[in-house]
Amino acid sequence: MKGRITKYIDDRGFGFIKGSDEIDRFFHIKDVKSELKPEVGNSVEFTPSKNDKGEAARDVFIQPKVTESCGLCGSLMVARKGSHSYFLGCSSYPKCKGTKPLTNIEKPPKLKTVVLISCTGEQRPGRWKATELYESNSFNENLACAKILSDEVYILSSAKGLIELDTEVENYNVDQSAKTDKELDVWGAMVAEQMKEQGIDVDNSDFIILAWRHFYKPLLKYIKFYELPFYKVSPQDKSSKLKELLKERGV
Ligand SMILES: [Zn+2]
Predict the structure, then answer these.
(1) pTM attached to this predicted model
(2) Distance, CA 3 to ligand 1 centroid (Å)?
(3) How far, in Å, CA of 108 to CA of 161, rounded?
(4) Alpha helices in 113-161, H assignment, sequence order
(5) Which residues keep their CB under 5 angstroms from ion ligand 1?
(6) What's the rounded mean pLDDT across residues 10-37?
(7) Structural domains of the chain in order of their starting residue, each with its CATH number
C-alpha cells in the first residue's frame, strides 16, 4: 500500500503513516527497509499489519526523491518494486525499459560530498603545507582522485586529526596502525570535534573515505552516510579501485 509519513519522532524511532485508505498506522524504525531516514512528508510503500496496539505498517519502504534520468530516453526515473528488491525504472515504461539499480541513491538528495584521505609516513623534513609535506605517490594519487570527487577534501592525520589541505604541518612520526583501540577512540573523538569546528554537517554529508581501516573505523560512529572504497582492498589493488570509483561516478 502507498502512504505518507505524517509523524515521526526521531529520538524514539517511531511514527505514523497515513495510508491511501486514510487509516493511520504505527511504524517503528526497525520496520523501515531502506536506509533513508524517515521524515514527515516522505512517500512510502508498506505492508499493512496489526500489532497488539492496533493498526501498524511493516516493510516500510521510503521512496527516495529521485532526480536521476533514464540513460536510454532521458525521462525521469521512478523507484519501483521488483520481486526481490527496489530499483529505478524509466517513468516512460512500458514504452522504454530503462532501469538502474537503486542502491546508490537510497540517501537524502543534495548530500554534500566530503572526501577524507589519510596522511602518510613519507614526509619531507621540516614544516610544509599539508599537500607538500606528504610525498608518497599513493598520497598524491588519493589526493588527485579526492579533488575530482569533491571540492571538500580533508586529510586525516595520525598526529593532528582532521586538517585542511593548506594547513601548515611540521613533520611528524605517528603510526596510526600501531595505536591501541583506546588511542584510536580518542583520535576518532578528536576528528569528530574538528569536523564540527570546520562546519561539516556529519548527518547530512556523504563521506568518501580514501583511507585504510585504522583511519576510517574510529570515525564510523560519528557519521551517517559513508563509502569506504578501500574496504577489503589490498594496497596493490588500490589504484584500480580508484579508477573504478571515478568511472562509477561518470568522471
Ligand atoms: Zn527511458
Answers:
(1) 0.59
(2) 26
(3) 28
(4) 130-133, 137-149
(5) 70, 72-73, 75, 90, 92, 96, 98
(6) 88
(7) 2-62 (2.40.50.140), 65-103 (no CATH), 112-248 (3.40.50)
